[in-house]
Design goal:
The protein is an alpha+beta fold and 95 residues long. It is built from 3 helices and 6 strands; from the N terminus they run E-H-E-E-E-E-H-E-H. Strands 1, 2, 3, 4, 5 and 6 form a 6-stranded antiparallel β-sheet that branches. The C terminus is likely disordered.
C-alpha cells in the first residue's frame, strides 16, 4: 500500500556516499522530517520505490504541502540519499 514516510532532516543532511539532492524545496513535517512517497511493498528496504517529495521549483512544492496535511515547504541545501537505507532499514517490531 502506498504511503507517506518521513526521514529526520539531520539524519539525511550528513554527508555520505551516493546521490545527493542539492538546494531542493522539500515537503517537511515539523515533527517527522522530510517526506518520501513510498509506492508500496513490505519487507526489506528498496530505495527504488521511494519518491522524494521535493522540487527545484518552490511552486511545485507549495502544491505538495497542499496535498500533505501538516507539512511545510523548506529549502534544504543538501540531502544525501545514501542515508536512506540506514534511516529506513530499522527492524520492524513484532505484531
Amino acid at each position: 500500500m502506498a504511503r507517506l514516510i518521513h526521514a529526520p532532516i539531520d539524519g539525511m543532511a550528513t554527508p555520505r556516499d551516493g546521490d545527493v539532492m542539492l538546494n531542493k524545496y522539500w515537503c517537511v513535517h515539523p515533527e517527522k522530517g522530510i517526506a518520501f512517497w513510498d509506492r508500496g511493498g513490505r519487507g526489506s528496504f528498496d530505495r527504488e520505490r521511494l519518491s522524494p517529495q521535493c522540487n527545484a521549483d518552490r511552486r511545485v512544492s507549495d502544491i505538495l504541502v497542499g496535498i500533505h496535511e501538516g507539512h511545510v515547504v523548506q529549502q534544504i541545501p543538501a540531502v544525501y540519499l545514501g542515508n536512506l537505507a540506514r534511516v529506513f532499514s530499522k527492524p520492524t517490531p513484532p505484531q
